[in-house]
Amino acid sequence: METQPLIDYFNNILLLNEEEQLALEQVFNKRRVKRRQFILQEGDVCTLNTFVVEGCFRMYMVDEKGKEHNLQFAIENWWIGDIGSFHAEAPSKLYIEAMEHSVILQIKKKDQLKLFVHYPKFNRLFRVFTENALVSAQQRILQNISSTAEERYLDFLKRYPGFFNRISNVQIASYLGVTPEFLSTIRKKLAKS
Predict the structure, then answer these.
(1) Is the dihedral of CA 85, 91, 95, 98 positive or negative?
(2) How far is CA 163 from CA 37, 108, 118, 141, in A?
(3) Three-state secondary structure readout of 13-62
(4) Residue 90 DSSP one-character state
(5) 3-state SS class at 168
(6) What does the mean pLDDT of the chain come to?
(7) Are 15 and 41 a contacting pair, CB within 8 Å?
(8) Which sign, positive or negative, has the C-alpha torsion 5, 10, 11, 17?
(9) 148 has a pLDDT exceeding 80
(10) Sequence-separated contacts (24+) of 83-89 with Cβ below 8 Å
(11) pLDDT band for position 165 (50/70/90)?
């Protein structure tokens, strides 16, 4: 079954019955993505919700000066997508790019809504994912306005240990809102202590 990693993921939260598992098989499509390939670009409408089976992605925006700002990373068993574009069916201001060769499972919005209607358990599961994403976004905002760069870096390492060897310092610096040079200074200081 191509959706087995997703079924395993859901079963760790709320057990699915056989009918619900078969429903997933019918609505999720497996896709292989090459490194540096986009699954979303600015101006496109995000029509797919994406579950990462293998690989690593980053979601970012590009400001008026051409500077990239990383908003999210996603590795195995994470979801990634522009929630605002997906729900409003509006053009995205974001890019989602594979940082490694990857395998993903994707579902269209209309199919996700059908799952919610026919299998209420999925409505509950996706609500929990959305709530968790909101909590994470709030924590990040609070941290950005009340923590030092060093504190943000240490928190990043603590929260996301699986990212450290897969994401360059340049990408981590962008996520933290500092320059790569400043991140290097922080890392040197921490190595000495």
Answers:
(1) positive
(2) 19, 27, 36, 20
(3) CCCCCHHHHHHHHHHEEEEEECCCCEEECCCCECCEEEEEEECCEEEEEE
(4) -
(5) coil
(6) 95
(7) no
(8) negative
(9) yes
(10) 83/130, 83/133, 85/40, 85/44, 85/45, 85/46, 86/46, 86/47, 86/48, 86/49, 89/45, 89/47
(11) confident
Rounded Cα distance, 30 and 52, in Å? 10
For 92-105, the pLDDT digits (tens) are 999 999 999 999 99
Give me the amino acid identity at 127.
Answer: R
Give the residue among 180, 181, 186 at the shortest CA–CA distance from 147.
Answer: 186
- With CA atoms as reference, report the closest residue to 126 among 150, 146, 109: 109
Residue with tokens 């999925």: 122
Question: What pLDDT is attached to residue 192?
Answer: 86
Q: Which long-range CB contacts under 8 A does 80-89 form with residues at least 24 apart? A: 80/50, 80/52, 81/40, 81/46, 81/48, 81/49, 81/50, 82/40, 82/46, 83/130, 83/133, 85/40, 85/44, 85/45, 85/46, 86/46, 86/47, 86/48, 86/49, 89/45, 89/47
What is the pTM assigned to this prediction?
0.93
**CA–CA separation, 110 vs 114, rounded Å?**
6
